[in-house]
Amino acid sequence: MTRTNGKVPGGPVLSVEDLAVAYKIRGGEIEAVQDVTFDIQRGEAHGIVGESGCGKSTVTWAILNFLGANGYVKRGSIKFLGQELVGRSGEELRRLRGDQIAMVYQDPMQALNPSMRLGDQMKEVLTVHRGLSDKEAEKRCISMLERVYMPDAANVMHRFPHQISGGQQQRVVIAMALLNNPALLIMDEPTTALDVTVEAAVLDLIAELRRDFDTGILFISHNLGVVARVCNKVGVMYAGEMVEVALTEDIYKDPQHPYTQGLIRCVPKLGSDKASSTLYPIRGRVPPPNNRPPGCVYGPRCDYVRDHCREVRPELRTLPNSVQVRCHYAEEIDPSQWQPSEDILPPKIRQNGDQEEYIIQVKDLKKYYEVQGSSLKDVIGMGEPRYVKAVENASFNVPKGKTLGIVGESGCGKSTLIKTIIGLEDSTSGEAQFLGLDITGDLTTRTEQLIQELQMVFQNPDSTMNPSYTVGQQIARPMLRFGTVPKNQVREEVVKLLNLMRLGANYFDRLPRQLSGGEKQRVGIARALASRPDLVLCDEPVSALDVSVQAAVLNLLLEVQAEYGTTMIFIAHDLSVVRFFSDYVAVMYLGQIMEIGPADAIYALPYHPYTEALLSAVPIPDPSAKQKRIRLEGSVPSAISPPSGCRFNTRCPRRHLLPDGGKICETETPPWQEDERGHRIFCHIPRETLLTFEPVIQTKERAV
Amino acid sequence: MLVKDVMTRHPIMVPPEMSAAEAEHIMTENLIRHLPVVGDGKKLVGLVTRQRFALKPDTMASLNVWEITRYLSNLTVQKIMLSAKAGEVYSIDSNRTVEQAARVMTEHKIGCLPVLDDDVVVGILSEIDLLRSLQEMLGLPTRGVRVTMRMPNKKGQFAALTTALSQHNLGIMGIGSFPTPRQPGFYDMVLKIPEVSMEQVREILSQVPEQEIVDIHEE
Q1: Based on the domain organization, do B131 and B195 belong to the same domain?
Q2: What is the rounded CA–CA span in Å between residue A164 and residue A452?
Q3: What's the CATH code of the domain at B125?
Q4: Fewest Cβ atoms nearer than 10 Å: which of A10, A646, B2, B115?
Q5: CB A186 within 8 A of CB A202
Q6: What is the dihedral of CA B202, B208, B211, B216, to 10 degrees?
Q7: Prediction ipTM score
Q8: Is A129 part of the contact surface with chain B (CB cutoff 8 Å)?
Q9: pLDDT digits (tens, 9 = 90+) for A322-374
Q10: Helix A609-617 and helix A196-213: axis angle, to 10°?
Q11: Is the minimum CB–CB distance between A81 and chain B shorter than 8 Å?
Q12: Last residue of some domain: B135, B163, B190?
């Protein structure tokens, strides 16, 4: 139904005006959110993006009156379906909101009761709110589960939450939220915990449900690509303020606020690599709410700041193209004229040339885990041993000074592979050589010198640092342990590393809790480099970080690589990041490398059918880009008994291209098809046929 | 076109215990004329319309100034609404057709119908929604030529018309027909044709045998 921009009948579902939320703390209070204004119409999806700590979630909590004991709405109004929510008592609110607002949060496991069957949890919604009979409720729950494309819906009702996959859990949560046909659905990072392929399916679902149920959606995310896919309007929040509100097309094509422009520059575009493009982090960080600068809150990080900005706080004003922006000089700023300032200028990447010297050579590496069966035979040790085949026949070589990226869904064996390389696990069979030394055994079989050459950067910097050691001690420890640096020079060396990490000597005596997430990750990298390793394994080093910090850390890793010529193996689930960062990419599925080769070859034709599906699932922060829509059905099969033949055959969308509907895929292991550049595809479909596929993503500039 | 495609979903609704003054305020502020009253689980209890706020003069006359205040403050939605239980509210199922809904509304001369799925309010259908669907049916939002053809009530007439258009590679984006007033045995058909000039349409359609162009507009 077409509706003009004028007055929509019945008014907006949710209307937030000049909202300010404050938290009472010792010795006063802090305003976490200030002057936030936005409307959500029926059937509209309104996104809110921003770095962590910008007050996105606080806004949703204010709507739900979920601010905790010390939080309250200080000013402004929140109207839901024309009725004021602020200043009402709990009972009144319950009646007002009733079953008309539903929430979906990031972690589905926390929204579901682990000790109740899914069916009982879902039915409760209907029997309590609507007084339906048990039978009737069951019928509706099943039809709603089918609506969210849950395979085998009737059966799922009898299962417990842990018996279904993460993507399916999130579907159950969404189905539950929609059972009462709510007018407003609040989603706080609903897909952040999911794999790209699952995420793509859930996002499709959300867009479809919005159309069908005319539900207003408030969608919170830090991922600009995800927001571009679901929302028609986006608000950008910074330090508790809405700095820009615009239609999705406008905000990606022509961002007005310097912060929005900065955010978009931070994200690597799918298909861009480190040689041809650069990431520009935003310098500085979000100011804490109790210490916001006077004038424009973004002033200290803004490249266009003038004296006027430092003194007068800009108001959210509407530009002629109906974009709302909180900046004094939005009309004068032209992002195409932007020049990076000195302090964020990324390092020059030295091309180390094509050396044929391999630092690590892996051939047919296998890692199996034995699983304990539960039958009597197994208990007395008579049963046949069963294995989780976590890594099967992995073969690759990494030249010195280059980066190998590994991508794949969770559970595909990426982490197991690098754990085997670093020695946290021994391998079951196969060969692995590092600088000619055998590394198939675990740490106990390795010499100290070998351990020193292989270091690792972990995903979560919080849990990898000892909270009671200072930064200096943490970085110095490997140096002392391996004796790479004479004792009297350790401090000097640590400071040198800290400087390289752009942290400075004053960080030496700080404790981890005094650092931000990005700073912690830099310390993690510094510690990995302290023993001067030849090979650094990075397991999702940037996925826990905000986009602006992520850009800074990626630049830093590039700089390190250029400085020391370190070789890296880099795991990430974000395909744009892997493409940007790596020279070579391996795509893994269920323990098997499906495709491996130079990065540009992986992201261009010919693709392995699985790579094709992965690429079509990547959320792209560009609403004008055309993306093929391939969604894999079902979930990843169990690694205990992987499908015979090609492991991907149960979900492959392309196997019908082969004679007999791809019978060969079930019976025979596919061959490796290799071209002259070393790009290998593990598939029965001939390379010539794979070449005839259409590119997955077509943007105005290039096809990927 | 079914009721569920045309209705306004997620209407503003109030509980029966709400004071009449507040309900009035909600209606004024949100520019709406009808307010479904719902109990637990969004089950329909009644309907408040603007007319329901007009108080009977004889009730008022018997009260003095102070009693009026008290009377008004005790007035709840429950007391002024049309009651669903008493059969005073007409409603419709969301899977019925639009024309059925229009018939109920014209028959009883009412301005809105709460839309129900098993007693649960899922939307509201007002005259405005029906008028909007009329616009859309006749293809108003997009520009084009709107032509009214008069044709005898015989088989094959519409086919002749569409064949003539398709031969010239023209499409139809809005369509409606009704019996010609005061001329039994004839039908008038309104078509909206995009991306074409008025002259072109006139030329093509004047060739269709037995039919005549009654009216032609560009809008």
Answers
A1: no
A2: 41
A3: 3.10.580.10
A4: B2
A5: no
A6: -10
A7: 0.78
A8: yes
A9: 889 998 888 888 777 777 766 666 656 555 555 568 888 899 999 888 877 77
A10: 50
A11: yes
A12: B135
Residue of chain B whose alpha carbon sits nearest to that of A2:
B141
Q: How far is A151 from chain B (nearest CA, A)?
A: 26
**Residue A207, min C-alpha distance to chain B (Å):** 17
A7 touches chain B (CB under 8 A): yes
Give the tokens for residue B39.
Answer: 């109990």
User: What is the predicted pLDDT for the residue at A6?
Assistant: 41
Owning domain of residue B145: 139-218
Q: Which of A307, A320, A395 is nearest to A680 (CA)?
A: A395
Residues B68 and B170 in one domain: no
Alpha-carbon distance of A632 to A647, in angstroms, equals 14
Q: Are residues B113 and B147 in the same domain?
A: no
Q: Are residues B67 and B157 in the same domain?
A: no
Q: Which of A42, A95, A131 sits opposite B9 (nearest CB)?
A: A42
Euclidean distance between CA atoms A459 and A227, whole angstroms: 24
Number of domain units in chain B: 2
Tell me the C-alpha distance between A692 and A686, whole Å: 10
Distances from the Cα of A525 to the Cαs of A163, A402, A505, A575, A697, in angstroms? 37, 17, 16, 21, 34
How many angstroms separate the Cα of B143 from the Cα of each of A693, B130, B191, B205?
A: 39, 21, 12, 19
Measured on CA atoms in the order B39, B42, B45, B47, is the torsion positive or negative? Answer: positive
State whether B129 and B158 are in the same domain: no
The DSSP code for A649 is: T
Report whether A104 contacts B24 (CB < 8 A).
no
The pLDDT tens digits for B60-96 are: 778 888 888 888 888 999 999 999 999 999 999 999 9
Report how far residue B77's alpha carbon sits from residue B85's, in angstroms, rounded to the nearest whole number. 15
List CB contacts (< 8 A) between B12 and chain A: 10-11, 81-83
Q: What is the pLDDT of residues A84-143, one digit of tens each?
A: 888 888 777 877 776 788 888 888 888 899 999 999 999 988 888 777 889 989 998 998
**Minimal CA separation from B105 to chain A, in Å:** 19
String of DSSP letters for A546-570: -HHHHHHHHHHHHHHHHHH--EEEE
B32 chain-A contacts, CB cut-off 8 A:
9-11, 82
**What is the reported pLDDT for A675?**
86
Residue B131 and residue B59 in contact, taking contact as beta carbons nearer than 8 Å: no
pLDDT confidence of residue A98: 65
Q: Does A439 contact chain B (CB < 8 Å)? A: no
Cα–Cα distances in angstroms (integers) from residue A153 to residues A158, A159, A195, A637, B215, in the given order: 9, 10, 22, 19, 55
For the record, the structure tokens of A619 come out as 């959320």
Tell me the pLDDT of chain B (219 aa) as tens digits: 899 889 998 899 998 999 999 999 999 988 899 999 998 888 899 999 998 888 777 777 788 888 888 888 889 999 999 999 999 999 999 999 999 999 999 999 999 999 998 888 999 999 999 999 998 888 887 889 999 999 998 888 889 888 989 988 888 888 989 999 888 899 999 999 988 889 989 988 888 888 889 999 888
pTM of the model: 0.84
Q: Nearest 5 degrees, angle CA A365-CA A366-CA A369?
A: 155
Please give the torsion angle defined by the CA atoms of residues A374, A380, A382 and A388, in that order, rounded to the nearest 10 degrees: 40
If you write DSSP's letter for every residue of B86-126 in order, what string do you get? TT----EETTSBHHHHHHHHHHHT-SEEEEEETTEEEEEEE
